[in-house]
Automatic annotation (TrEMBL), chains A, B:
It comes from Methylobacterium jeotgali. Its EC number is 4.2.3.4. The keyword Lyase applies. Keywords: Amino-acid biosynthesis, Aromatic amino acid biosynthesis, Cobalt, Cytoplasm, Lyase, Metal-binding, NAD, Nucleotide-binding, Zinc. Catalyzes the conversion of 3-deoxy-D-arabino-heptulosonate 7-phosphate (DAHP) to dehydroquinate (DHQ). It catalyses: 7-phospho-2-dehydro-3-deoxy-D-arabino-heptonate = 3-dehydroquinate + phosphate. This is 3-dehydroquinate synthase. Residues 74-186 form the 3-dehydroquinate synthase N-terminal domain. Its cofactor is NAD(+); Co(2+); Zn(2+).
Length: 374, 374
């Protein structure tokens, strides 16, 4: 029945009985049933997107049913557009149609889109039912499945509607990444590299040497996912509601979000991780320009991201991204920007990021103009 | 500017910095600005229904603006149908269009529909902004504005989607009840009487003597609202997530909800409080029949509710409510019914209610048949 698969474990020690485990390894889906059943619900209803469901819903349901859980499946179309009010309603009603009671479980099977949407539905259904994350994209395994942020988009902006709702268990089956597209893999890798750049120079060194094993599915993949989860979990436990340190996780994201906005959130042009990759390179070059960070560190960052197939300059944004003022305006709409003052995450070197509030607008403008002219 | 209006105060001592005050008195809306401004947001955006907004939004906004807060107004149509996914999205987007930031406030101005809807929107907007309740129906002042339950209806059932989200302040301006329809006033009164019946025989005595003052707007009105808020707040603080004692607040509601369901939630036929009034009378007559409660207590309950203009028998349900089996089926769909076993709130007398699990279906059936034949 439940195949004993070797795996790594990251414990997330949240208070109030909300602590949980993240298990990381190849083949965890086949053994998911026993682990989910241990949470003592009677039903476990899966939420997934059509692409991921076609690949992994059957073995997951089989495992759940074999462990004595009644299972069910609710799907949405793949893609960011499913993080909508309409899909929220459809998922909630789908879960209700599957008779999910207060003691039952919602299982999010998919990338960050499914995790965010299903997590918000679980938070809201009967004012809160428990949920399990089974992240299947690299981005979801190293980032979105950890931390308890759930939500959907409004026509007025991304991730503006949601809840803090922690999962009871995260099963990161790293074998599922074998079917992920090269481009989504690269995009997720930008977030992997980010953890090294934020606060773990040793991990960035290791990435430079071992990144190919992450892509090919060697043991380095599991190790990298575990390091990232441990890093994010640590930050989340120390700053669950993002009042302070958690902002460091946004390294590369102020620039990145602006680029996503300027490309109309059109994944065909730029996916989130690509925006982050350019943003990371920009954050380091901007730090170097301000005299905060050695120029060779900025160079290493860009070289490594490029090696992994990621863009690192504004010129690489397909269809362009407008001029410096358009970029500044797009940045000013970011949640991290308050009272018109620009707050950046900058770095004193690889692994030495910090929150830099009150950055001068003119300084950013001049930097962006030079980047655009380069 | 802020008129000093005499008022009663009920403090709700929730932990984790979530404690708040309920102020009760005539004219509190005119002085709301200073009290809301003391919560230190920069903007306070009102959510209301069109009926209530026409009556009270202007003076409330004036008071908020005079206290230096930027104000705004988002309205929905009056009525239960507004507790929908569509209105949830419209209210969230309306609040975003008014640029509600994480430190700002949402103000729910209206009956229980507006309170539940606006509260869920506040809980979800940017994963949680603070909100203030300004309840304007008797039901909202004594029941729905206290306790932190917020939510909307799904096509699959009432109140199935929502969040626990406590207000930061409740301003129950009892003068607003002067414009409430007689029927809504009576419906709310069923919940007032309920508090006496649950656990405060002295308050029920007082109600028998003073109910007319509650309806006419004498000082008895403020006193009754305060007693009810204090009773509900006490239960909520002891059992915030409704795992135990809070279930007592459902006295009369298992029958009441079944009647609402069987009349298609058509307020023209039966509003919630009317269902509760019949439910209270039934709960006491059923308790008496089981030999738990003196027959004269059941008689007093029905007499008093009838005096206040409320229905107390199944025969008074406009259009009828089907036979005993239809009633049992409708009850079995209630959230309080698990594993097919019927759990009732029964009473050993006025002010002596208790949770009675495992009530025999046949016993209930026989009782209902007699009630229908009476
Ligand atoms: N909650 C958080 O803390 C947090 C953090 C970061 C990002 N996010 C959110 O995550 C979302 C992005 O996540 P994402 O990049 O995983 O996007 P996604 O969920 O859309 O997945 C990307 C694509 O890959 C496909 N896919 C996923 N797993 C697959 C697999 N194993 N095999 C084949 N195809 C697979 C999906 O069907 C989809 O088409 C965004 O909405 C973002 O806002 C949330
Ligand atoms: N959250 C909780 O704990 C809780 C508890 C009990 C009930 N509820 C919910 O409360 C809702 C019922 O609340 P309600 O009875 O207040 O209904 P409501 O909000 O629909 O108000 C009833 C009617 O009275 C009107 N009205 C309200 N105040 C008025 C005033 N001062 N003057 C003139 N007209 C006024 C409204 O426009 C509406 O037409 C239900 O949806 C129920 O589920 C919630
Ligand atoms: Zn990211
Ligand atoms: Zn009620």
């Amino acid at each position: 029945m439940s195949k004993p698969s070797p795996h790594l474990t990251v414990h997330v020690p949240l208070d109030g009985g909300r602590d949980y485990d993240i298990l990381i390894g190849r083949g965890l889906i086949a053994g998911a049933g026993g682990r989910v059943a241990a949470l003592k619900g009677r039903a476990a209803v899966i939420v997934s997107d059509e692409t991921v469901a076609a690949l992994y819903a059957a073995p997951l349901r089989e495992s759940l049913e074999a462990a004595g859980l009644r299972s069910g499946l609710v799907t949405v179309p793949p893609g960011e557009a499913s993080k909508s009010y309409g899909c929220f309603a459809a998922v909630c009603d789908g879960l209700l149609a599957h008779k999910v009671e207060r003691g039952d479980l919602v299982v999010a099977l998919g990338g960050g889109v499914v995790g965010d949407l299903a997590g918000f539905a679980a938070a809201s259904l009967r004012r809160g039912v428990r949920f399990v994350q089974v992240p299947t994209s690299l981005l979801a395994q190293v980032d979105s499945s950890v931390g308890g942020k759930t939500g959907i988009n409004s026509p007025l902006g991304k991730n503006l509607i949601g809840a803090f709702h922690q999962p009871r268990l995260v099963l990161a089956d790293t074998a599922t990444l074998d079917t992920l597209s090269e481009r989504e893999m690269q995009a997720g890798y930008a977030e992997v590299a980010k953890y090294g750049l934020i606060g773990d120079a040793g991990f960035f060194d290791w990435c430079e040497a071992h990144w190919a094993g992450i892509f090919s599915g060697g043991p380095e993949r599991d190790e990298a996912v575990a390091v990232c989860c441990r890093a994010k979990a640590g930050v989340v436990v120390r700053d669950e509601r993002e009042d302070g340190e958690r902002a460091l996780l946004n390294l590369g994201h102020t620039f990145g979000h602006a680029l996503e906005r300027l490309t109309g959130y059109d994944g065909a042009r730029l996916v989130h991780g690509e925006g982050v990759a350019i943003g990371l390179a920009l954050a380091f070059r901007f730090s170097a320009r301000l005299g905060l960070c050695p120029g060779q560190d900025a160079g290493r960052v860009a070289n490594h991201l490029a090696m992994a197939g990621l863009p690192t300059t504004l010129a690489q944004v397909p269809g362009g991204c407008g001029d410096a003022d358009a970029l500044l305006d797009a940045m000013a709409q970011d949640k991290k920007v308050r009272d018109g003052a620009l707050t950046f995450i900058l770095a004193r070197g690889i692994g030495k990021s910090f929150i830099a509030p009150g950055i001068d607008r003119a300084e950013v403008r001049a930097f962006l103009q030079d980047e655009l002219a380069a």
